[in-house]
Design goal:
The protein is mostly beta strands. Helix content is 11%, strand content 32%.
């Protein structure tokens, strides 16, 4: 039996991460407050309001500096404060001040990539990288295995996961496909592995690419998968320190 080590949400897809102590998961929905907004680029084929593939959005795979953005939500007002080591702090209401974000993030975007154009809502569920309403689950043991191969510590925040679990063997999560986890009072059914991209090579403190995470995965496992996607199959509460059981 394992336990919850950490919980994270990402209010704007690829533009900031935020730790939380607890959350209420609802059946068939994404992690609360996670990826409720996304930044569509100039060549996007979506205006938001419903799920769209990640190729429509500005993201850290193409703009690694985005990895260094952190977020803080004002629960009472819904306003977000975003921070980056190379920029001033930005506070905005994403429902009506998307233009402020586009201006703020401009210095972080590579000149040879499609420019960020507008902040769009996700619709009924978060703008995850899956067409279904997914929650991403990772284990600290698999992360430590990557650290061991690189020979230095890494931040778990590179993986932009929702739920981090202690108490399992490295890569054990790949055996959970089709199985259900009871986490706190919620249950999640694991659907598929997460195939990783260049975003994970960037340091979340600096936004600079400094670790060949993809090379390590390919050398060690013969693929680029890290973590798994699950769907909430039973509503319930989860919190750091909660027990985790594979059913």
């Amino acid at each position: 039996m394992g336990r919850v080590a950490a919980l994270w949400r990402h209010p704007i897809k690829a533009h900031g991460r935020e730790p939380v102590d607890r959350a209420t998961l609802n059946e068939g929905q994404t992690f609360p407050g996670d990826r409720r907004w996304a930044v569509a680029h100039a060549q996007a084929r979506t205006t938001g309001g419903k799920w769209a593939p990640c190729a429509n959005f500005s993201r850290a795979a193409k703009a690694p500096a985005l990895m260094a953005i952190t977020a803080q939500t004002d629960e009472a007002t819904g306003r977000l404060t975003l921070r980056h080591p190379d920029l001033w702090d930005l506070t905005l209401d994403p429902a009506i001040q998307g233009d402020k974000l586009i201006q703020w993030v401009r210095p972080l975007m590579p000149a040879d990539r499609a420019a960020s154009a507008r902040l769009v809502p996700a619709g009924d569920h978060g703008m995850t990288d899956t067409a279904f309403a997914s929650v991403s689950i990772h284990t600290t043991a698999s992360h430590r295995a990557i650290e061991g191969r690189l020979g230095r510590p890494l931040s778990t925040e590179r993986w932009r996961g929702n739920i981090w679990l202690d108490g399992f063997a490295p890569w054990e999560e790949f055996d959970w496909l089709g199985k259900t986890l009871r986490i706190g009072t919620a249950e999640l059914t694991v659907q598929e592995r997460i195939t990783r991209c260049l975003a994970t090579t960037a340091n979340p403190d600096t936004g600079k690419r400094d670790a060949d995470t993809l090379g390590v995965l390919n050398d060690a496992l013969g693929h680029q998968d890290f973590g798994v996607y699950a769907v909430v199959s039973k509503s319930g509460g989860i919190a750091t320190g909660d027990s985790v059981k594979v059913l």
